[in-house]
Model the fold of this input.
Amino acid sequence: DVKVTQSSRYLVKRTGEKVFLECVQDMDHENMFWYRQDPGLGLRLIYFSYDVKMKEKGDIPEGYSVSREKKERFSLILESASTNQTSMYLCASSSFMNTEAFFGQGTRLTVV
Amino acid sequence: GEDVEQSLFLSVREGDSSVINCTYTDSSSTYLYWYKQEPGAGLQLLTYIFSNMDMKQDQRLTVLLNKKDKHLSLRIADTQTGDSAIYFCAEGTDNYGQNFVFGPGTRLSVLP
Done:
């Protein structure tokens, strides 16, 4: 059974904190993605990676960075959390053929 | 850039058919997807269709693709309360390193 696992379901952080969201996949997928989901806006791509140490900016990269040191792990970093980063964050992975994206269960982040 | 649009809400009565519509802009899309998101969960792939197909049927689900109009629809026959969820339309290509583009999601409410 394929699996994408996000390290936390719920997180509450303070403004200005550095926040790490972790995602691990066990399918040996080349591609990994971070999206944020907000009501009425759907999923917006923050960053994606198509190989170890490779990353590409998505539609809304400002205020975020990513790290992919190992193929199975893709981390999203909020350098200095702000209240407008309160959202649901979804990680996904796919093979290089991109036939299907598999999603984690999501992390609901609240910044206070 | 690519854009995917959907209406945000749909209500149907239990036992009726539901039709969720989607339009997209990228004519080079190779695959078009329907994902389902239940409350508090990540996205789960329901079905997908290759861009060279017009229709795909899978049990209660029928997907219709009008490539000329860039219009995709998902029909759910005999809609049940368990079908209440958010449904996302998405497009993707099989180009290495490309990502998926999602619509805003349609919230389907099934009334008893």
Remarks:
- Chain A has a mean pLDDT of 93.
